[in-house]
Amino acid sequence: GHRFLEEDVFARLERGDGTVLNIGSVAGRVPYPSMATYGASKAALHAFTQALRGEVSHRGVRVVAVIPGHSSGGAGPNVALDGPTLETPEQIARTVVRAACRPRREVVSGLPNRIFLRVARIWPWFAEGTMLSFARRSLPAGAFATPGTPAASFRSSGETRGEMRAARKSRADS
Length: 174
Hints:
Blueprint: H1 2-15, E1 19-23, H2 36-56, E2 62-67, H3 89-101, E3 106-108, H4 111-122, H5 124-138, H6 161-173
Parallel strand pairs: 1-2, 2-3
Helix pairs in contact: 4-5
C-alpha cells in the first residue's frame, strides 16, 4: 500500500530513474458548474505535479500530468454530464500507457480535449461559457452548486433546463 509506494519512490529518487504519472482532468483546467470540488482538486493536482517536477527532475525522475476528459466510464451515479465527445476508459488507459512509455510534461487524452484546452488558453471566457452551456443542458435547473453546499438547490423533479423549456413551449403551443 502507501508504505510500499513511499519506499519505491524514495528508492527511485536515490537511483535517479522512474516516472510519476498524475491523473488530472480537463475539469481541473476549465471549471464545470456543479463540480467545483472535483475541479479544484484536479487543479491542485496540476500545481502539485508542476512543483514536484521542479523538485525531482534534476535527479532524473520524470513527472507527467495525464489529462483525460469526459469519460463514458461515468462520473458517479448522481452526475449526468452533457458535453464533448466521450472517451472510453480503454482509450484513457491507452493514453496513460503512452504517457508512461514516452513521458512528456503533459499528455492530454483525445484530440477534442487537446483542441479545447488550447482554445481555453487563448479565450478562457469562451471555454468557461462552453462548460456552463453543457451544465445547463445536463443538470437539473438550480443545480449550479456543488452538492452538499448551502447554495445547492436541486429540483426534486430532476428536470433539466432543456426539458423545462420544452414543457413550457408545449404548454404554450396547446
